[in-house]
Amino acid sequence: MGKSDLLLELYSNLSTTGALAFSSRALVNKMLSYTHIEQADLILELGGGDGSITQGIIERLSPQGELLVFEINSSFCESMRRQFPQENVRIICDSAENMDKYLGGRSADYIISSLPFVILPKEVTDEILSKSRDSLAPKGKMVIMTYSFHLKRLFKKFFSHLETKFTFRNLPPAFVMICH
Asked: Is the separation of the CB atoms in 124 and 154 below 8 Å?
């Protein structure tokens, strides 16, 4: 599936993707600058989309590290499985609400999210954020890309520490929230 097909899929499913465009390289670099992916054993990505963020994670991922990517859109899943055939990368076509079913008792060093929390039902959002908090290693971080600064209050309900950054170098400009 080419980029034009992925864009068509993106616009056809705005109610679940919540994005007007795919994440820019600048946004990906900004998000990942708050991590040490190269030292991580397990990373979760919530909302793989076209694989923009996935690619950035893989470029930093050690051969011993493992990446689990959660995506509910089957077209995006198929495309990412072809794009990322590495043995230490697993594309999971399931909701992030079910992340605990795939962890086998392990904890994640980082959870990287581009989920559209602003449009998800409250129960779904609460379930994902609760499971994310509970799935992080003691020194783990959740890095979230969002277009809404007001979500900061929501994230503070689940995480005791929160930093907010901003980048203009994305369409539209985006906030990066680092939760731990």
From this structure: no
